[in-house]
Amino acid sequence: MAKTKRYVKMAEILRNEPNLCGGGTLKAIVFCCGLEKPCPIRNTALKILNIPLSVYKKIKDENGIKAEGVCFGNIAYCCSLKKPCPYRNQALAELGMSEEDYLEFKARLLERFMEYNDDDEVWNQRVMKKYVFIMVDPETKISYKGVGIGNPELSIFNILKIVEKKKVEF
Q1: CB 24 within 8 Å of CB 42
Q2: Binning pLDDT at 50, 70 and 90, where does residue 155 land?
Q3: pTM of the predicted model, to two decimals?
Q4: How do the domains of the chain map onto residue ranges?
Q5: How far apart, in whole angstroms, are the C-alpha atoms of residue 113 and residue 159?
Q6: CB 79 within 8 A of CB 31
Q7: d(Cα 138, Cα 141) in Å, to the nearest integer?
Q8: Reduced to 3 states, what is the DSSP secondary structure of residue 115?
């Protein structure tokens, strides 16, 4: 792949970008799965970006790289390097692609998606955000404080860490 300053810069941005479901910005759409897997997070991101599902699939499929063993048989659907994946890593090794090559490939996909929405502020939004929470189990009267990632509008919340657990009275 020909390296340009633009792709190298975008690739470096993507290097530190987690998947959308891990709290990444909308740029992480390049790391999302195929439409065969239902995903309200991906679909919400595409709706925010005004990118139809058919366009998403077309960009991923037409610009993809076929590879054995990876999800949907295409590197375009592989996840962020922030998420360990032996299947992606094996496919990259077999294709002779370095991490830099992979990120530049994803940068090229991102550029294609950006043709449909060129608003930089939109691309910096997140579907999943970090939250500090306090919740109480009314049966056991145990209070939990911690940090999680989620989207209340999608009724999705994953606990990342419990920092305090104690008995409470109410």
Answers
A1: no
A2: very high
A3: 0.88
A4: 5-123, 129-167
A5: 31
A6: yes
A7: 5
A8: coil
